[in-house]
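Hi P.,

Sorry for the delay on this. The queue was packed all week, but I finally got your sequence through. Input first:
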Amino acid sequence: MGDTEYRNIRLTEDAYQRLKSRKQEGESFSDTVERIAGERSLLDLAGIISDEEAEVMREAIRERNERSRDELDRLTDRMDP
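Then the structure:
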């Protein structure tokens, strides 16, 4: 581990349980905190694209969903005797 420094922190039982529930198998609590602290909030993304760009993205998602539904329908039709 080298020259790693350690700090003690106090957590409420609720905070500890919430952190524990986010902990992945084989991950230390330090690993968990580092992973979570690196996550972005959706609020961080506010204003990053224009309303027009957002609408283009929504429309692309709608079209992709429709194509996916159509493909699923075709596959299920082929499976029916």
